[in-house]
Amino acid sequence: MCDDGSRQEVQDLCSELGVHYMSRENNIHAKAGNLNNALAHSKGDFIILLDADMVPKSTFLDKTIGYFVDEKVGFVQTPQIFYNPDPFQFNLHMNENIPNEQDFFMVDIQAGRANYNAVLHVGTNAVFRRKAIEDIGGIPTGTITEDMATGMLIQAKGYTSLFVKEVLCTGLSVESFGGLVKQRERWCRGNIQVTKKWNPVTLKGLSPAQRIIYVDGFIYWFFGVQKMIYILCPIIYLVFGVVILNANVYDLILFWFPSFLASTLTFRALTNRSRSMTWSHIYEVAMAPYLALAALYEVIFAKPIRFIVTAKGTNTEKTSFSWLLAFPHLFLFAATILGWILVIPRLGSGSPRVFNSVLINMFWSAYNIFAIILGIFVCLERPRKRTAERLSAMEEVKLSLDESATCKIVDISDTGVRIECTNYTEPATESDDSSSVKMSTQNMGDMKGDIMWSNSKNGVKSFGIRFKEQTNDIYGKVVKFITDKNRGFHKNK
Q1: Cα–Cα distance between 112 and 62 in angstroms, integer?
Q2: Last residue of a domain, one of 352, 381, 410
Q3: What CATH code is carried by the domain that includes residue 25?
Q4: Which residues pair with 441 in a beta bridge?
Q5: What is the separation of C-alpha 73 from the centre of its chain, rounded to a whole number of angstroms?
Q6: pTM for the structure as a whole
Q7: Catalytic residue numbers?
Q8: Alpha carbon distance 372, 328 (integer Å)
């Protein structure tokens, strides 16, 4: 446990669980410095890197370590998958209807990059050959995205990077839109920092394909600038009458529509339904104002910023609205509506050219305002009341209340379970300890809990049970069961 916070409670927990605890006197170079400190005090030939919120499955090493039989393999990366909904899924009430915002990159794009030995190390869920890290002089410092630099420099040394397209670790996604913005601003600036310090175009050892892929990754982080231009152009025309795109409807149908159709079909064919053009547009519009500023600020000023860990595992009881975050989208929404109002008199000019221009920009701005509205709604933070994420499960269980009943766990967290029973017989009398129950499963063994609620419907008896008096051994079995069954909170299950 590499604890850069030097927390006594973490040290005590490690001592209780038999885990080696490591801290350091300073926090120089943040995460990269923390990892280099751990590397200097360890001897293993292989290094597994896991963020604190990531939990590996019991088969993690079985599915990854075998690849290192090939001496050329420098690291093996697995997807970073999350078991809770991200702010778009949660705040827009679309948990089951859209994928996690990161799934497209973490699964589909990474698998594509692997074909050219350009897998991006994402800072966690990876196994490294120690020699590969030593050959690049340790984890690179001087940027806030040392993970990207680590993978690229190892590949430049001639090592192979592999991607295992299987969910082997799950963790917590960012839980607020504000946290998501801060995280992406850090990623944006960090990727630009890495590219400026280790230019993939000139970095010795990279193949032409690797150079193209890393340059493409650098260019991607300017999507905020591109998207803001795309949003502002129709607004400028509608409000001020300034012509941005000198084209008529026929020109657009002839030149733009075939390109748009080809892009849409290609996108759909390559994304395995993990992302659509529409949702890409929504995601990018929601993030554009912040990442446009972050990218330009890093390019122009390049001032160092602190590495701040993204807050996760937070609980809130009330709905809140992030007015500061929503302000850019509220402004763009108001400007679009103002443009629609101001353009009405121009429609009466009788000029076909003006009519065509208004038609194009009205359609263009309508397409944008749909995403702008969703960008406003994602700033409306719904309360997250649960202390632990609950996951679906199907596990037979015996209850002490009626051991002859047929019962199964239907969902579970590390704090409790929901159980449904058929052929359940209510006890004739309630005991003094009627709220307590014992449970027994094949995978988790014997457990104790308190009944928090119960009901009967259509012949099915349901219980909500909170665990109590768990030993470390039992708790470990519960976590192992949850992790091994968990495939992440994403659409393509």
Answers
A1: 23
A2: 381
A3: 3.90.550.10
A4: 445
A5: 27
A6: 0.88
A7: 4, 147
A8: 9
